[in-house]
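task queued by scheduler; priority normal; single chain, no ligands, no partner chains; default sampling; output format set to structure tokens
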Amino acid sequence: MIRTGEFEAFFGQSPTVVAVSPGRVNLIGEHIDYLDGWVLPVAIDRHLVIEAAATDDGTWEIVPVQAGFGQAVRFGKEGISPRNAKEERWLNYLLGVIAGYRAAGVEVPGFRAVIHADLPAGAGLSASAALETATALVIEALTGHALTVPDRARLCQRAEHDYAGVPCGIMDQLAVGAGKAGHALLVDCRDLTTRPVSLPEDLVLLVTDTGVKHALGDGEYRIRREQCERALFLLGATSFRDLEIGRIEAGRERLGETLFRRARHAVTEIARVHAFVSALESGELAALGRLLHEGHESLRDDYEVSCSELDCLVEAGYAFGADRGHVGTRMTGGGFGGSTISLVRRDDADALRDHLETAFAARFGRKPDAFITSAVDGASAMDA
């Protein structure tokens, strides 16, 4: 996966640096990373890889190979600006990172790069954050200007805001940068502190990609964030982490039904993250399953970011049954498509995967892409 020979095939030379960035799933804590909440992501063993070498003329030449992005592109310094054409929008994640380092005073050299991945784009597994982070690590390797993991995450987040037009939180960039093998990562999205939380060795993660591609820059993600900001204003608060559900319920009439439901999701999801960590640490599998189910229902009904394909997989997971090794299933990522994440006993994972594929195919006439994964370390760069 790390070296494929594609760089040599395209450019007739060897790369000097290889950056490897994992995808991520979020166990619980959805749509609250941009609301000062806590989240519990896991870096997974599906990766995006960039092989790169500096150019002599200061230009950039980027070749995506089986990475789910667009066509090869070549540009100079005048080309470092947001792209609006649909076939070029993927490039904004990379361009925004280049621009971020330049704005910080780093002289970013032109480079040739080949991008390849076994991490599907548009599946809710943070391919965009993986691309941003790998690009950042390439730049740092070529310039010797190294950032801390939190500072790199902030720079990549700004790139997504300013170039891709997605007002995302910090979770994805921090998760792919700070992941730890065998652990989930409890992230405080206000101060960016992290704490590894051990995952049970007898459980694995089953990711099931619906194949419904989501484009968070299309507007719905921004609308949800703006709705939450409006709800906070009406409640006279600055953060949902400082509110309890009673205050949300007391303000229901003032908020109106839509803003009330958005606020209810934020407050209850923050509480679910802490309860989930406690259940993990005490081995309470039934509590984990209940919290995952409640989280999905809240995302479906209060935040309205699920879809029929995601709901089908969640229903099928719980129909499989706890007595057969299923712990819990919910949608993961921004929603509007993408993937579900299931916690399942290791010995029962194949059977659950078959069950989900069969249930999905019976309803939608095609099989989803389901794979068993594990928690891995965060992104890194190395000499080629």
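post-processing summary
- Residues 220 and 305 are 9 Å apart (CA to CA).
- The first strand starts at residue 17 and ends at 26.
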